[in-house]
Amino acid sequence: MKHSIRVLLAAVLLFSAFTAGWAHAAEQDIKVFIEGEEVVFDPGPVIVNNRTLVPFRQLFEALGLDVEWQQSTRTVVGKGGGVDIRLRLGDTTAVVNGVETELAVAPVSIDGRTYVPLRFVGEATGRQVKWDGANRIITIGPAPGKTSAEEDFDFEAFYREFIAASDREDIDGFLAFYHEDSPYLAQEGDFRGYLEELFAKYDLVSELELFEVVDVSETEAVLHTVESGYNTNDKFYVGSRTEQLQRFVKDDAGQWKFFAFQILALQYLVPEERLVPLEGLDDELESALLDVLIANVEATIAEDLDGWTKSSMNCWSPWPVKTN
Fold first, then answer.
1. Cβ–Cβ under 8 Å, residues 195 and 171
2. Of 22, 101, 224, 292, which is the most exposed, with the fewest CB atoms less than 10 Å away?
3. Following DSSP, what letter does each residue of 163-224 receive, concatenated?
4. CA–CA separation, 114 and 78 (whole Å)
5. Mean per-residue pLDDT for 281-295?
6. What sign does the CA torsion over 21, 76, 79, 29 have?
7. CATH architecture of 2-12+148-277
C-alpha cells in the first residue's frame, strides 16, 4: 500500500566487452550503484566471459582510489584506504597489497580505453558486491568500517513494518515512519485526508521483491528496493512494479524515519481482463476525459511540467497537487 501511495507522489516530486568472437558491445542496460549512488559509466560496461568490465579510471575514482597509469608496463594502479590494486592489460594475474591473485578475465583495451573487472576491484577494496540478474543491477556497498550502523539495526524488518502499516491501513502507524522534514509531508494539501480517501476506495497491498542496504552512516541510510503494488477489491486500479532508492534519516530522538525516495524504474501492471471498454459511457464525460488525455500529451511534447502534472495527477489522486 505504501508503495502505491508513493508512486502517486513521485509524479509530483520526481520532476523538482566482448561476446562470442571477441566482438564487444556496451551493456547499456546494466546499472551500477556504489554506496547508493548510481555511477553511469561512459562508455558503458561490457561483458567478457560472463564478467562485467568497466573503464578503470571512473571505477577507481568512484571507489575513492587515487589512479595511476603506468605506460611502460601497461598497468593500472589504484591506491587508497589501505588498498593497493594493480592490474595489467591482458594479464590474468592482479596484485593486491603485494599479493598476486588470479582473475577470471584479464583487463582489456577497447577503443583506447582500459576496462577492468568490476566485481574483482570492488571486492579487492573490501566491499560487498551484489548482482541482481533479474533487473541487471550491480550494487557495491560501503568500504569496511562504514557498516556498524547497519549491523546494529535490522533495516529489512524495519522496512517491512513500514510496508505493513500501510497495507493494514494504519494511518497513524504509517505516518509515524515519516521524518517531520520529509518533502512529502511538506506538500500542499491534506496528506492524511488523501490517505483516508485512498484507503476507503481501495484495498492495496505491497510485495517486497528485493531489499538491499547499499549505504549507511550514523544518521542516514540508503535502501535499494523493488516492490509491486496491487489493489485487491473490484475497483479499477493501475498497479505497478517499482525499483527505488529509499533514504532514511534519524530524527532528533535518534529514530530512523523515512525521508525521501527516487524511482529508478517503473512498470505499470494492469490485468488484461480489466482493459475492456465501458458500454454506454456518457458523451460529455467521454469528451472531458479525452480533453485531459490530449492536454497531457500536449504538455509532454511541450515539456510543460505544470501542465503535465495537472493533467496527470488530477486524474488519479484526490490529494491536491502543488505545481508552483
1. yes
2. 22
3. HHHHHTT-HHHHHTTB-TT-TTTTSSS-HHHHHHHHHHH--EEEEEEEEEEEEE-SSEEEEE
4. 13
5. 85
6. negative
7. Roll (3.10)
Angle between helix 2-13 and helix 305-316 axes, rounded to 10 deg:
160
pLDDT digits (tens, 9 = 90+) for 136-175: 889 998 877 654 444 568 899 999 999 999 999 999 999 9
The DSSP secondary structure of 266-321, one letter per residue, reads EEEE--GGG--PPTT--HHHHHHHHHHHHHHHHHHHTT-HHHHHHHHHHHH-SSPP
Evaluate if residue 313 carries a pLDDT over 60: no
Taking the complete model, does pTM exceed 0.70, yes or no? Answer: no
List the grid coordinates of 176: 509515524
167-213: pLDDT as tens digits: 999 999 999 999 999 888 876 567 788 888 889 999 999 999 999 99
> Locate cell 589504484: which residue?
78
DSSP 8-state symbol, 92: S
Q: Which three cell numbers stand for residue 202?
A: 481501495
Q: What is the CATH number of domain 37-140?
A: 3.30.457.10
Residue 197 CB neighbours (<10 A) = 14
Determine the pLDDT at residue 309. Answer: 66
In the prediction, which pLDDT does 176 show? 92
Domain residue ranges in the chain = 2-12+148-277, 37-140, 285-324
Region 287-295: mean pLDDT is: 85
